[in-house]
Amino acid sequence: MQPADATPPIIRTPWAETHELLRDYYDTEWGRPVTTDQGIFERLSLEAFQSGLSWLTILKRREGFRAAFDDFDYHRVATYTDLDVERLLEDTRIIRNRAKIQATIGNARAAVALEDEGGLAELVWSFKPEQTPMPHTMADVPSQSPESVALSKELRRRGFRFVGPVTMFALMEAVGIVDTHIMTSHLRGVSGVWER
């Protein structure tokens, strides 16, 4: 039996225990609210590049992505030309996938177009559900939700690409819109958006 003043054990989601970069990301960033347009654009872009790959692959290249895409300043990315696409296809710091690079540029333009209606962050956060999952095991964590399906449809309608329902649910987890930390995690409720 632990003393009453003992520090509670650190219990992480299992994927966070597989690599130091994942552990640090989980402990310091994942699931915490991101509410700026640039912050959402960065996460949306990284989730798109992650499609079909592991998140660890993206984390290892994150600083390279930031350098290659002007720190995800979507106003600047929106001005990229075919020359920039070719430049990015030669950049070994990132995932060199033409379709994903072109989608990121197109998504930046779509994000600029949203500014007259409140912006990308406001749109994404408008799909916050009334309740968040309460998983006890990883098997309880859904891969999508009605809200992520609706967000995906709305973003596609507005010209965004690589924004499928599963990718959008991962985005919602990453930026604190839903809390899928397992119930025994020391970080359950860390976003402040949802009660523990």
Automatic annotation (TrEMBL):
InterPro entries: Adenine_glyco, DNA-3mA_glycosylase, DNA_glycosylase. This is DNA-3-methyladenine glycosylase I. It comes from Populibacterium corticicola.
